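Re: [ENG-882] Designed sequences occasionally contain unexpected residues at chain ends

Forwarding the minimal case from QA. Structure tokens:
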């Protein structure tokens, strides 16, 4: 973990169907005449959004119902939109108030990770029209927003967790995840890294024989290697900055997403 502040991009993933407990939000936004509902995914790699295959949230822990694990909430943002994230992240946003319209105004609804699992989303830059919210058990509730977007081509954590769901029908069943939410979503090549190829996370997980999302030590190694080499020598294969080094594309993509209203900056 670094010591300086971490500069995240919060990507606004639009909820396409308000079902279950989320249906209560329908009234909330009709009342103000605007306001889509967004899951806010914290990323350090805004240039990788072309490779999204799904989103991640953490289910709550039945053995520890009083812990923060798997607890989220929906907040009305100052611009009338509704943001889903952890209460902790919402509080941080209030203090930062980087631009007034990004500020969070009021809590509308408490949510558990399970309420979000299986929801269809439309996420900026994703080539799929809809991607689904799937369970990631290693999410830290005290970092970012507790919502993560999944780019298995370039994130070993994402690849390992997606493989768990692909390979284990029982795991899908446990969280009411259907085959259609997982199996059609192939890893998408978006960055070429000399010596690692165009699916760096897949190669590193395979070479290091990562067994699952809980293979902490190997994943830490794969992550460090992927991140360093991706940033130092990776080249974009797709998107607005195809042909440019990752190093340059990162800030350009972040600025574009923010300017278009598809993301907000966030630091902690
Ligand atoms: B990154 P750092 Cl392609 N718990 O985004 C666990 N992981 C979290 C998280 C949380 N609460 N919040 C964010 N993250 C993930 C893309 C990506 C990321 C790629 C490659 C590497 C990578 C797509 N997932 O991160 O500990 C998010 O995943 C490798 C470090 O604050 C976020 O960026 O440094 C990153 O971890 C933030 O991790």
């Amino acid at each position: 973990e670094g010591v300086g502040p971490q500069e995240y991009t919060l990507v606004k993933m639009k909820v396409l169907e308000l079902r279950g407990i989320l249906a209560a939000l329908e009234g909330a936004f009709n009342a103000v005449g605007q306001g889509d509902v967004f899951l806010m995914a914290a990323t350090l790699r805004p240039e990788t959004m072309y490779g999204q295959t799904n989103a991640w949230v953490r289910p709550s822990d039945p053995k520890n119902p009083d812990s923060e694990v798997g607890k989220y909430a929906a907040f009305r943002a100052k611009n009338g939109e509704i943001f889903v994230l952890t209460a902790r992240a919402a509080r941080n946003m209030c203090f930062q108030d980087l631009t007034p319209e990004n500020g969070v105004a009021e809590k509308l609804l408490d949510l558990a990770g399970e309420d979000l699992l299986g929801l269809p989303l439309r996420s900026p830059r994703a080539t799929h029209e809809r991607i689904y919210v799937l369970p990631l058990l290693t999410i830290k509730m005290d970092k970012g927003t507790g919502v993560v977007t999944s780019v298995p081509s370039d994130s070993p954590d994402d690849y390992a967790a997606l493989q768990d769901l692909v390979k284990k029908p029982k795991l899908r069943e446990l969280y009411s995840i259907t085959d259609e939410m997982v199996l059609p979503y192939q890893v998408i090549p978006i960055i070429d890294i000399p010596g690692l190829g165009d699916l760096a996370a897949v190669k590193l997980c395979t070479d290091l024989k990562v067994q699952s999302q809980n293979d902490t030590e190997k994943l830490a190694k794969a992550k460090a290697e992927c991140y360093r080499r991706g940033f130092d020598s990776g080249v974009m294969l797709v998107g607005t900055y195809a042909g440019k080094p990752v190093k340059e594309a990162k800030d350009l993509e972040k600025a574009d997403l923010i300017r278009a209203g598809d993301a907000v900056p966030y630091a902690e």
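QA comment: On inspection the terminal residues look reasonable. Residues 8 and 44 are 5 Å apart (CA to CA). Proposing we downgrade this to a documentation issue.
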